Structure formats: C-alpha cells, structure tokens
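Onboarding guide, step 5: your first structure request.
Type a short instruction followed by the sequence, for example:

Predict the 3D structure of this protein.
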Amino acid sequence: MTRTVARPAYDRSTLAPGIVHIGVGNFHRAHQAVYLDDLFALGQCHDWAILGAGVRPTDARMREALAEQDNLSTVIELDPAGHRARQIGAMIGFLPVEPDNAALIEAMSHPRIRIVSLTVTEGGYYVDATGEFDPTHPDIVADAAHPSAPATAFGAILAALKNRRAAGVAPFTVMSCDNLPGNGHVTRNAVVGLAELFDADLAGWVKTHVAFPNGMVDRITPATGPHERELAQGFGLNDPVPVTCEPFRQWVIEDNFPAGRPLLEKVGVTFTPHVHAYEAMKIRILNGGHAVIAYPSALMDILLVHEAMAHPLIAAFLHKVEVEEILPHVPPVPDTSIPDYLKLIESRFSNPEIADTTRRLCLDGSNRQPKFIVPSLRDNLAKGTMPKGLVLLSALWCRYCYGTTDSGLVVEPNDPNWAALQERAHRARTDPAEWLAMAEVYGDLAGNEALVAEFATALRAVWEDGAEAVLRRFLAA
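The system replies with structure tokens like these:
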C-alpha cells in the first residue's frame, strides 16, 4: 500500500519570490527550503518564496528534473521509528542556467529579491590554505576580465548589485548556507575581492552597504541514488531527484538583514550574535568526526556510515579522538552541553536508516581537512600536546589517496584534486614529509619537526600493518 505524502499546507499561487538561491542541491532542499515550507504553512511570509538558480552543468540537470514536477522537491526523513515523506513547495521557479548568467543577474537585480543565498560547497569560495580569498584563481581572473558576463556566482552577484546601485535600489543580503567557518565573512571576501580586481568603487560600495550574515547549518543529507529513488517510489512518487535526510536539523544565523527577512524564528531557526560558537562546535565535532571515521572505514572496506559506527574499533577511535583531542579545544556554546552534543552526534552517525556512505564522507578531503581537522590539530600543538589520533587520521587520509584500500580494492577518484593527491601520496609512501608539505592544506605545519616525525611513524605503520591493526594499537595505548 502506498504511504501518505504530506503536501504543501498552503496555496502556492499566493507565493511571490523574495529569495534567489544559487545551488539547488540536496542539502538546500532538505534544509532552507524545508524551513520556509514550514513557515509558509503557518500562513506567514508568502512574499519570501525561492527562485532557484545555478552556475554549473549539474544545476541545469536539476532544473530540468524539477521542472517536470512543478518545482516540488520530495524530502524523506529517515527516522528509525518510521519514514516520513513530504513535498516541499517553497521554490516557485528555477532560472535558466546560462554561461553568462544573464537570467540570474536580471532576477537578482529586481527590487523584490531581498536575499541571495548560496550552497556552492565548501570548495566553491576560492580561498587558499589560510582561508583568504584567492584572486589568482582562473575562474576569478576570467570574471574580472568579463564582469558583464560572469561565470561564477560571485561575479553574477556583483553584476546584480551594480545594477541595483545604478537604479537606486537597496542591495540584497548575501547569505551563505554552506558549511564552512565564518561563511558570511568568506562570502564577503569573495564578492569584495573579485570587485577589487575590476571596479574599486563598486568594491567600496559593497563593503559599506551589503550585509553578509554568518550562519551555521546542519542536517545529514546523503547523495541521491537508486536506493533513494526506490524509497520515493514506495511513497508512490516517481521522482528522479528525491532527497533523503535525518530527522535532525539546525540553523543558527546572525540577525543581519537590512533588506528584511522571513520570520524563520517561528519555525525553529536561532538568531544570535554567537554564531561562531555554534559553528566551531559543529565543524570541529560533527564534520571533524565525519573525517575521523571516514578514512579508516574506507580502508577497511566498510561502505556505510552506520556500519562503521557499529564496528567497535571505528566507534572507539571516534570517541577517543573527540574526547581527548577535539572537545578540549571547542569554546563554550550558549545553553549547550558539549559532551551531550557529542552523544547526539554519535547517535546521528549511527542511524541505520540514513544509509550514508563512507565514500561521501571521504569526498573532497583537500577542501575539508583544512577546515575541519587542521584547526584542531593546530590547537593541540599550540598547547604543547601531540594529537596522535588526528595525526593518525592524516596518515589514513594519505593512505586512502594512494588509491587502494587495505584489501587492494581500487579507490575511484574522490576529490577535485585527486590526481595531485594521488601523486603526492605515492611519493609520501617513501618520504612521508611530502604529505605535510601540502601548504594549501597544512600551511606551515611541515616546519614542525615533531609533527613530521609523528606523521612519518603513523603512515609507515598504516602501510605495514593496515588500518585495523593500527587502530587497535592506538586504542590499546
């Protein structure tokens, strides 16, 4: 029997766009769009609907798929007590995806758009190893040379802001919904940094007049594949792009919206000046924790995250590294117990319904490690402590990037920089210092002789004995 699907509890014909969202992937549709759907169901803020947008070929494919279903997104919450499906109606249009972003620029130039939000992935902000904007990136150089036909989201945002300034229209707020530290600051640096390459006056105007609130977002949202489509079919939905997610969700954001905002506090969003504290907790404990379990699991041929958490060595490794090397360096968070938050994270990772893959957690390590792991590593070293677990994790990541598991299975490319990582991992097998010499990941840490020695010991042990034996020895010590 087909199970019930919740439909939008409001008349979608009453909605008007107030937000352009760039990057309509799974996370956005299971997070921001769900909060707005809940708000619209209260009869509130119907002038804050979403226009979807994108700047990549994958966005065009998503646009085509959603157009076939009136821009409704299927979201299935994978609660162990029972699955719940709903169709989210908060997005009422999806702009054409074009090389010069003409339709996107035109839409953002309209006065009714008061927020432009983004989920363009952690690696999509053109930053270097220090977290600073990189003006030498080829995409940025190209946009600076052709600002009226930009290819990046940031170039399109600037073109629209320039149009609004010329027309005497107040600027929109730019709101990153990506999972990276200080996402508002990082977004501001990208927009202003690009503007400084071709129009210093525009750059100064953006600095003075455009708001970039920082925010923390959280919801585990696996990639869509045959399993997820089968779940949708079980609800009677022939949806090629359904979203599955855990029941838990969280959104914490600064209340910095000069052009106005939807009343998201009515549906559970936290507005606070203390976003950085929540953000540090989440990025260090959850995202860092994902990395801790990802690479040993992959090397041991464990495919699913909940299966990794059911393995006593993996679960114990996660807990030991978190308690001894990550939690001591997480600053206090208002009204939050850090140890209780860790328990929540361990429970969420263990949810068997999510069927999240360890391969997804291993994805894009070259962008994630500098943000999620290296800061904790640095904090330990600054206190005079050698974080042996985090160092071992780096060795496991290096071993993974070599391109095979401990059993000899081939690891398919799993990073935008896979070829360079694999080449370096091969060199590091005989010269471990090569791995820490990646300045874009580790900065100046290659100059720490004690760290280099500890890493060399860990990597050699991983190669000689395998991940399972090394974890067993680490935990026994």
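Each response can be followed by summary notes, for example: The first strand starts at residue 5 and ends at 6.
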